[in-house]
Protein backbone atom coordinates (compact mmCIF):
# COMPACT_ATOMS: atom_id res chain seq x y z
CA UNK A 1 0.00 0.00 0.00
CA UNK A 2 1.25 3.43 -0.86
CA UNK A 3 2.07 5.60 2.11
CA UNK A 4 -0.53 8.33 2.42
CA UNK A 5 -2.11 10.96 4.60
CA UNK A 6 -5.90 10.77 4.49
CA UNK A 7 -8.34 12.88 6.42
CA UNK A 8 -12.00 13.63 6.62
CA UNK A 9 -12.38 16.28 9.27
CA UNK A 10 -15.72 17.70 10.38
CA UNK A 11 -15.69 20.45 12.97
CA UNK A 12 -18.77 22.46 13.88
CA UNK A 13 -18.22 25.69 15.74
CA UNK A 14 -21.13 26.76 17.95
CA UNK A 15 -22.79 29.75 16.29
CA UNK A 16 -20.01 29.54 13.72
CA UNK A 17 -19.25 27.89 10.42
CA UNK A 18 -18.75 24.21 9.71
CA UNK A 19 -15.41 22.97 8.52
CA UNK A 20 -15.88 19.73 6.60
CA UNK A 21 -12.67 18.97 4.76
CA UNK A 22 -11.49 15.75 3.22
CA UNK A 23 -8.38 14.99 1.24
CA UNK A 24 -5.76 12.35 0.68
CA UNK A 25 -2.31 12.42 -0.82
CA UNK A 26 0.73 10.15 -1.01
CA UNK A 27 3.58 10.82 1.42
CA UNK A 28 6.46 9.57 -0.69
CA UNK A 29 6.96 12.09 -3.47
CA UNK A 30 6.32 15.85 -3.50
CA UNK A 31 7.37 16.72 0.03
CA UNK A 32 5.50 19.98 0.60
CA UNK A 33 1.72 20.19 0.54
CA UNK A 34 0.24 23.66 0.85
CA UNK A 35 -3.19 24.16 2.39
CA UNK A 36 -4.22 27.26 0.55
CA UNK A 37 -7.29 29.41 0.89
CA UNK A 38 -8.60 32.76 2.03
CA UNK A 39 -8.69 33.77 5.67
CA UNK A 40 -11.44 31.92 7.50
CA UNK A 41 -11.46 28.99 5.06
CA UNK A 42 -10.66 26.46 7.78
CA UNK A 43 -6.94 25.92 7.15
CA UNK A 44 -5.83 26.27 10.76
CA UNK A 45 -8.70 24.07 11.94
CA UNK A 46 -7.57 21.28 9.60
CA UNK A 47 -3.94 21.67 10.61
CA UNK A 48 -4.79 21.59 14.31
CA UNK A 49 -6.93 18.50 13.76
CA UNK A 50 -3.97 16.79 12.06
CA UNK A 51 -1.80 17.75 15.02
CA UNK A 52 -4.36 16.45 17.51
CA UNK A 53 -4.91 19.88 19.05
CA UNK A 54 -8.49 19.95 17.82
CA UNK A 55 -10.76 16.95 18.19
CA UNK A 56 -13.08 16.89 15.18
CA UNK A 57 -16.79 16.19 15.69
CA UNK A 58 -16.78 13.52 13.02
CA UNK A 59 -14.55 11.85 10.46
CA UNK A 60 -11.18 10.17 10.54
CA UNK A 61 -7.49 10.83 10.09
CA UNK A 62 -5.09 8.14 8.90
CA UNK A 63 -1.36 8.76 8.61
CA UNK A 64 0.80 6.14 6.91
CA UNK A 65 -1.60 3.33 7.81
CA UNK A 66 -1.98 4.49 11.41
CA UNK A 67 -5.38 5.73 12.55
CA UNK A 68 -4.94 8.97 14.51
CA UNK A 69 -8.60 9.73 14.74
CA UNK A 70 -11.78 7.81 14.10
CA UNK A 71 -14.98 9.35 15.43
CA UNK A 72 -17.05 6.19 14.94
CA UNK A 73 -14.63 3.99 16.86
CA UNK A 74 -13.74 6.63 19.42
CA UNK A 75 -10.05 6.54 18.41
CA UNK A 76 -8.04 9.63 19.29
CA UNK A 77 -4.26 9.53 19.34
CA UNK A 78 -2.99 12.42 21.50
CA UNK A 79 -0.68 15.02 19.91
CA UNK A 80 2.52 13.80 21.58
CA UNK A 81 1.97 10.26 20.26
CA UNK A 82 1.51 11.35 16.63
CA UNK A 83 5.11 12.31 16.01
CA UNK A 84 4.31 15.64 14.40
CA UNK A 85 6.46 18.76 14.45
CA UNK A 86 4.55 22.01 14.76
CA UNK A 87 5.33 25.56 13.81
CA UNK A 88 2.75 28.20 14.53
CA UNK A 89 2.20 31.60 13.05
CA UNK A 90 3.79 33.41 16.00
CA UNK A 91 6.31 30.61 16.65
CA UNK A 92 5.28 30.32 20.33
CA UNK A 93 8.87 30.15 21.57
CA UNK A 94 9.42 30.12 25.31
CA UNK A 95 10.69 33.62 26.07
CA UNK A 96 12.40 32.68 29.34
CA UNK A 97 14.36 29.80 27.80
CA UNK A 98 17.56 30.02 25.76
CA UNK A 99 17.60 29.09 22.10
CA UNK A 100 19.27 25.80 23.05
CA UNK A 101 16.56 25.00 25.59
CA UNK A 102 13.85 25.92 23.10
CA UNK A 103 15.32 23.67 20.42
CA UNK A 104 15.77 20.83 22.92
CA UNK A 105 12.32 21.24 24.42
CA UNK A 106 10.78 18.14 22.84
CA UNK A 107 13.78 15.98 23.71
CA UNK A 108 13.28 15.58 27.46
CA UNK A 109 13.08 11.82 27.08
CA UNK A 110 16.58 11.60 25.63
CA UNK A 111 19.67 11.29 27.86
CA UNK A 112 21.34 14.63 28.32
CA UNK A 113 24.35 13.96 26.08
CA UNK A 114 22.15 12.85 23.19
CA UNK A 115 19.85 15.79 23.69
CA UNK A 116 22.74 18.22 23.55
CA UNK A 117 24.19 16.54 20.48
CA UNK A 118 20.86 16.80 18.69
CA UNK A 119 20.53 20.49 19.58
CA UNK A 120 24.03 21.17 18.24
CA UNK A 121 23.28 19.25 15.06
CA UNK A 122 20.10 21.19 14.35
CA UNK A 123 21.71 24.49 15.25
CA UNK A 124 24.36 23.78 12.64
CA UNK A 125 21.84 22.85 9.99
CA UNK A 126 19.83 26.01 10.60
CA UNK A 127 22.68 28.43 11.17
CA UNK A 128 21.92 28.95 14.85
CA UNK A 129 25.21 27.77 16.35
CA UNK A 130 26.26 31.22 17.56
CA UNK A 131 22.87 32.00 19.04
CA UNK A 132 22.30 29.04 21.34
CA UNK A 133 22.67 31.01 24.56
CA UNK A 134 20.42 33.87 23.52
CA UNK A 135 16.78 34.31 24.45
CA UNK A 136 14.09 34.57 21.75
CA UNK A 137 13.62 38.26 22.61
CA UNK A 138 17.17 38.97 21.42
CA UNK A 139 16.68 37.46 17.97
CA UNK A 140 15.48 38.83 14.65
CA UNK A 141 12.23 37.55 13.19
CA UNK A 142 14.06 35.33 10.74
CA UNK A 143 16.22 33.86 13.48
CA UNK A 144 13.16 33.17 15.64
CA UNK A 145 11.61 31.37 12.72
CA UNK A 146 14.66 29.16 12.36
CA UNK A 147 14.61 28.38 16.09
CA UNK A 148 10.97 27.37 15.80
CA UNK A 149 11.81 25.13 12.84
CA UNK A 150 14.72 23.56 14.72
CA UNK A 151 12.46 22.92 17.70
CA UNK A 152 9.82 21.33 15.48
CA UNK A 153 12.38 19.07 13.80
CA UNK A 154 14.42 18.11 16.87
CA UNK A 155 12.31 15.11 17.94
CA UNK A 156 12.51 13.66 14.39
CA UNK A 157 8.83 14.08 13.53
CA UNK A 158 7.16 12.01 10.83
CA UNK A 159 5.14 14.97 9.64
CA UNK A 160 5.78 18.70 9.84
CA UNK A 161 2.84 21.08 10.22
CA UNK A 162 3.47 24.76 9.61
CA UNK A 163 0.79 27.42 10.04
CA UNK A 164 1.56 30.61 8.08
CA UNK A 165 5.28 30.13 8.81
CA UNK A 166 6.37 33.43 7.27
CA UNK A 167 3.55 35.75 8.24
CA UNK A 168 5.24 37.10 11.39
CA UNK A 169 8.14 38.45 9.31
CA UNK A 170 8.48 41.84 7.65
CA UNK A 171 8.18 41.77 3.86
CA UNK A 172 11.91 41.83 2.92
CA UNK A 173 12.75 39.07 5.43
CA UNK A 174 9.78 37.07 4.30
CA UNK A 175 10.95 37.18 0.71
CA UNK A 176 14.48 36.24 1.66
CA UNK A 177 13.32 33.32 3.79
CA UNK A 178 10.80 31.87 1.38
CA UNK A 179 13.41 30.19 -0.77
CA UNK A 180 15.43 29.17 2.24
CA UNK A 181 12.41 27.55 3.87
CA UNK A 182 11.55 25.67 0.70
CA UNK A 183 15.09 24.34 0.44
CA UNK A 184 15.10 23.39 4.07
CA UNK A 185 11.78 21.58 3.94
CA UNK A 186 12.91 19.63 0.93
CA UNK A 187 16.17 18.61 2.54
CA UNK A 188 14.62 17.71 5.88
CA UNK A 189 13.16 14.57 4.31
CA UNK A 190 10.01 14.99 6.42
CA UNK A 191 6.71 15.48 4.59
CA UNK A 192 5.29 18.89 5.41
CA UNK A 193 1.89 20.54 5.37
CA UNK A 194 2.14 24.31 5.12
CA UNK A 195 -0.84 26.60 5.66
CA UNK A 196 -0.84 29.89 3.81
CA UNK A 197 -3.28 32.40 2.37
CA UNK A 198 -0.50 33.99 0.31
CA UNK A 199 -0.28 33.04 -3.39
CA UNK A 200 3.39 33.73 -3.77
CA UNK A 201 4.12 31.65 -0.72
CA UNK A 202 1.99 28.81 -2.04
CA UNK A 203 3.90 28.93 -5.33
CA UNK A 204 7.31 29.19 -3.74
CA UNK A 205 6.85 26.53 -1.08
CA UNK A 206 4.43 23.94 -2.38
CA UNK A 207 4.67 20.89 -4.57
CA UNK A 208 1.03 20.09 -4.10
CA UNK A 209 -1.81 22.49 -3.46
CA UNK A 210 -4.95 21.72 -1.48
CA UNK A 211 -7.42 24.56 -1.95
CA UNK A 212 -9.86 25.20 0.89
CA UNK A 213 -12.84 27.51 0.49
CA UNK A 214 -15.61 27.90 3.07
CA UNK A 215 -14.48 24.90 5.07
CA UNK A 216 -14.30 22.42 2.21
CA UNK A 217 -11.52 21.15 0.00
CA UNK A 218 -12.28 22.25 -3.56
CA UNK A 219 -9.22 21.08 -5.44
CA UNK A 220 -6.02 19.11 -5.00
CA UNK A 221 -3.26 19.13 -7.57
CA UNK A 222 0.25 20.18 -8.44
CA UNK A 223 0.89 23.90 -8.07
CA UNK A 224 0.83 24.69 -11.82
CA UNK A 225 -2.22 22.47 -12.31
CA UNK A 226 -4.31 24.26 -9.73
CA UNK A 227 -3.23 27.73 -10.79
CA UNK A 228 -3.62 27.09 -14.49
CA UNK A 229 -6.73 24.91 -14.38
CA UNK A 230 -8.88 25.81 -11.39
CA UNK A 231 -11.91 23.50 -11.15
CA UNK A 232 -14.46 26.25 -10.67
CA UNK A 233 -14.87 30.00 -10.63
CA UNK A 234 -14.42 30.21 -6.88
CA UNK A 235 -11.09 28.43 -6.93
CA UNK A 236 -10.11 30.60 -9.89
CA UNK A 237 -10.87 33.69 -7.83
CA UNK A 238 -8.90 32.39 -4.87
CA UNK A 239 -5.82 31.46 -6.87
CA UNK A 240 -6.15 34.65 -8.92
CA UNK A 241 -3.54 33.90 -11.54
CA UNK A 242 -4.55 31.78 -14.50
CA UNK A 243 -1.18 31.33 -16.11
CA UNK A 244 1.52 29.71 -14.02
CA UNK A 245 4.34 28.18 -16.04
CA UNK A 246 7.26 26.19 -14.68
CA UNK A 247 10.20 28.01 -16.28
CA UNK A 248 13.95 28.02 -16.56
CA UNK A 249 16.23 31.01 -16.63
CA UNK A 250 17.64 31.68 -20.10
CA UNK A 251 19.50 34.94 -19.55
CA UNK A 252 19.58 38.22 -17.67
CA UNK A 253 19.98 41.65 -19.22
CA UNK A 254 19.41 45.21 -18.03
CA UNK A 255 17.22 44.29 -15.06
CA UNK A 256 15.19 41.94 -17.19
CA UNK A 257 15.01 38.18 -17.18
CA UNK A 258 14.33 35.91 -20.07
CA UNK A 259 12.82 32.60 -19.06
CA UNK A 260 11.79 29.61 -21.11
CA UNK A 261 8.30 28.28 -20.46
CA UNK A 262 7.41 25.31 -22.60
CA UNK A 263 8.51 26.29 -26.11
CA UNK A 264 8.05 30.02 -25.47
CA UNK A 265 10.43 32.62 -24.14
CA UNK A 266 9.10 35.31 -21.83
CA UNK A 267 10.70 38.57 -20.82
CA UNK A 268 10.03 39.67 -17.24
CA UNK A 269 11.29 42.11 -14.66
CA UNK A 270 14.06 40.48 -12.60
CA UNK A 271 12.75 40.07 -9.04
CA UNK A 272 16.16 38.82 -7.84
CA UNK A 273 16.81 35.44 -6.30
CA UNK A 274 16.19 33.42 -9.46
CA UNK A 275 18.87 30.77 -9.89
CA UNK A 276 17.50 28.45 -12.48
CA UNK A 277 13.95 27.31 -11.93
CA UNK A 278 11.02 29.64 -11.39
CA UNK A 279 7.35 30.04 -12.05
CA UNK A 280 6.33 32.66 -14.57
CA UNK A 281 2.87 33.98 -13.69
CA UNK A 282 0.59 36.02 -15.90
CA UNK A 283 -2.95 37.08 -15.11
CA UNK A 284 -5.39 36.33 -17.91
CA UNK A 285 -6.64 39.93 -17.95
CA UNK A 286 -3.10 41.12 -18.66
CA UNK A 287 -2.89 39.23 -21.94
CA UNK A 288 -3.81 41.27 -25.02
CA UNK A 289 -4.85 39.41 -28.17
CA UNK A 290 -4.03 40.93 -31.56
CA UNK A 291 -4.18 39.85 -35.17
CA UNK A 292 -0.99 38.05 -36.15
CA UNK A 293 1.64 39.69 -38.30
CA UNK A 294 4.17 42.46 -37.83
CA UNK A 295 3.24 45.14 -35.35
CA UNK A 296 5.31 47.61 -33.38
CA UNK A 297 4.50 48.12 -29.69
CA UNK A 298 6.25 48.70 -26.39
CA UNK A 299 5.33 45.25 -25.08
CA UNK A 300 8.29 42.91 -24.65
CA UNK A 301 6.37 39.73 -25.26
CA UNK A 302 4.59 39.11 -28.51
CA UNK A 303 3.89 35.42 -28.98
CA UNK A 304 2.41 34.05 -32.17
CA UNK A 305 -0.01 31.17 -31.75
CA UNK A 306 -3.39 29.66 -32.36
CA UNK A 307 -6.60 29.78 -30.36
CA UNK A 308 -7.21 26.30 -28.97
CA UNK A 309 -10.19 26.89 -26.69
CA UNK A 310 -12.89 29.44 -25.97
CA UNK A 311 -15.16 29.58 -22.95
CA UNK A 312 -17.80 32.24 -22.55
CA UNK A 313 -18.28 33.61 -19.05
CA UNK A 314 -21.01 36.24 -19.08
CA UNK A 315 -19.58 39.48 -20.45
CA UNK A 316 -16.11 37.96 -20.66
CA UNK A 317 -14.58 35.24 -22.76
CA UNK A 318 -11.71 33.03 -21.71
CA UNK A 319 -9.46 32.25 -24.63
CA UNK A 320 -6.67 29.68 -24.52
CA UNK A 321 -3.89 30.34 -26.99
CA UNK A 322 -1.21 27.80 -27.80
CA UNK A 323 1.89 29.90 -28.41
CA UNK A 324 4.56 27.51 -27.22
CA UNK A 325 2.78 27.45 -23.89
CA UNK A 326 -0.95 27.40 -23.29
CA UNK A 327 -1.69 30.97 -22.38
CA UNK A 328 -5.12 31.95 -21.06
CA UNK A 329 -6.45 35.40 -21.94
CA UNK A 330 -9.56 37.09 -20.65
CA UNK A 331 -11.21 39.43 -23.16
CA UNK A 332 -14.61 41.06 -23.49
CA UNK A 333 -17.26 39.32 -25.51
CA UNK A 334 -17.34 42.28 -27.90
CA UNK A 335 -13.62 41.88 -28.64
CA UNK A 336 -13.98 38.14 -29.05
CA UNK A 337 -16.78 38.61 -31.60
CA UNK A 338 -15.01 41.38 -33.47
CA UNK A 339 -11.84 39.29 -33.83
CA UNK A 340 -13.66 36.04 -34.53
CA UNK A 341 -11.91 34.29 -31.68
CA UNK A 342 -12.60 30.60 -32.01
CA UNK A 343 -10.52 27.44 -32.04
CA UNK A 344 -8.12 27.41 -34.96
CA UNK A 345 -7.84 31.19 -35.34
CA UNK A 346 -4.19 32.38 -35.67
CA UNK A 347 -3.49 35.10 -33.13
CA UNK A 348 -0.71 36.95 -31.31
CA UNK A 349 -0.66 37.14 -27.52
CA UNK A 350 0.94 40.29 -26.15
CA UNK A 351 2.16 40.66 -22.57
CA UNK A 352 4.19 43.49 -21.08
CA UNK A 353 7.28 42.46 -19.14
CA UNK A 354 5.96 43.91 -15.84
CA UNK A 355 2.89 41.67 -16.18
CA UNK A 356 5.06 38.56 -16.09
CA UNK A 357 5.63 37.88 -12.42
CA UNK A 358 8.52 35.59 -11.61
CA UNK A 359 8.49 33.49 -8.44
CA UNK A 360 11.86 31.86 -7.78
CA UNK A 361 11.72 28.17 -7.22
CA UNK A 362 14.83 26.73 -5.66
CA UNK A 363 15.24 23.00 -5.96
P1 LIG B 1 -8.15 29.90 8.45
O1 LIG B 1 -6.98 29.33 9.19
O2 LIG B 1 -8.31 29.34 7.07
O3 LIG B 1 -8.13 31.39 8.43
P2 LIG B 1 -9.72 28.84 10.64
O4 LIG B 1 -9.55 27.37 10.58
O5 LIG B 1 -8.94 29.56 11.67
O6 LIG B 1 -9.50 29.47 9.20
O7 LIG B 1 -11.24 29.17 10.88
C1 LIG B 1 -12.27 28.65 10.05
C2 LIG B 1 -13.59 29.25 10.47
O8 LIG B 1 -13.95 28.76 11.75
C3 LIG B 1 -13.57 30.76 10.58
O9 LIG B 1 -14.80 31.26 10.12
C4 LIG B 1 -13.41 31.02 12.05
O10 LIG B 1 -14.00 32.23 12.43
C5 LIG B 1 -14.12 29.83 12.66
N1 LIG B 1 -13.55 29.45 13.94
C6 LIG B 1 -12.29 29.02 14.15
N2 LIG B 1 -12.09 28.71 15.44
C7 LIG B 1 -13.26 28.96 16.07
C8 LIG B 1 -13.73 28.85 17.40
N3 LIG B 1 -12.94 28.40 18.37
N4 LIG B 1 -15.03 29.19 17.67
C9 LIG B 1 -15.84 29.62 16.69
N5 LIG B 1 -15.47 29.74 15.40
C10 LIG B 1 -14.20 29.42 15.09
MG1 LIG C 1 -5.34 30.32 10.06
Task: Give the helices and strands, then pairings.
Blueprint (H helix, E strand, L loop, with lengths): L3 E9 L5 E9 L5 E5 L6 H9 L6 E6 L2 E5 L4 E2 L7 E4 L11 H5 L8 H14 L15 H13 L5 E5 L7 H18 L3 E5 L2 H7 L2 E6 L2 E7 H6 L4 H7 L3 E11 L2 E6 L2 E6 L7 E6 L5 E3 L10 E13 L2 E7 L3 E7 H6 L7 E6 L5 E4 L3
Parallel strand pairs: 3-9, 3-10, 7-8, 8-9
Antiparallel strand pairs: 1-2, 1-4, 4-5, 5-6, 10-11, 12-13, 12-15, 13-14, 15-21, 16-20, 17-18, 17-20, 18-19
Q: Which range best describes the helical content: under 10%, 10-25%, 25-40%, 40-55%, 55-70% or over 70%?
A: 10-25%
* Tally of alpha and pi helices: 9
Name of the CATH first level of the largest domain: Alpha Beta
End-to-end C-alpha gap: 28 Å
Note the beta-strand portion. 35-45%
Give the low-confidence spans: none
Model description:
It contains 9 helices and 21 strands. The longest helix has 18 residues, at 171-188. It is an alpha+beta fold and 363 residues long. The strands form 4 sheets. A 6-stranded mixed beta sheet has the order 7-8-9-3-10-11, sandwiched between helices. Strands 2-1-4-5-6 form a 5-stranded antiparallel beta sheet, covered by helices on one side. A hairpin with a 3-residue loop joins strand 18 and strand 19. The protein binds adenosine-5'-diphosphate and magnesium ion (MG). Adenosine-5'-diphosphate binds at residues 13, 16-17, 19, 37, 39-45. Magnesium ion is lined by residues 43-44.
Amino acid sequence: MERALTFDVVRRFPRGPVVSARASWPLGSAPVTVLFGPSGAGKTTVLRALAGLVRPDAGEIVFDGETWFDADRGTFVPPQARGVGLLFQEYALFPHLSVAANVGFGLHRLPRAQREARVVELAERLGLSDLLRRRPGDLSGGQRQRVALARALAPRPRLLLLDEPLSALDAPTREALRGELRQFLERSGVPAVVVTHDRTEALALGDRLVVLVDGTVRQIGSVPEVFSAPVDAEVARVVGTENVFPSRLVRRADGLLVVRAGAAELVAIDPGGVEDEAYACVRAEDVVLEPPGGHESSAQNRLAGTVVARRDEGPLVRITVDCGVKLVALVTRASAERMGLAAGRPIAAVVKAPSVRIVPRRA
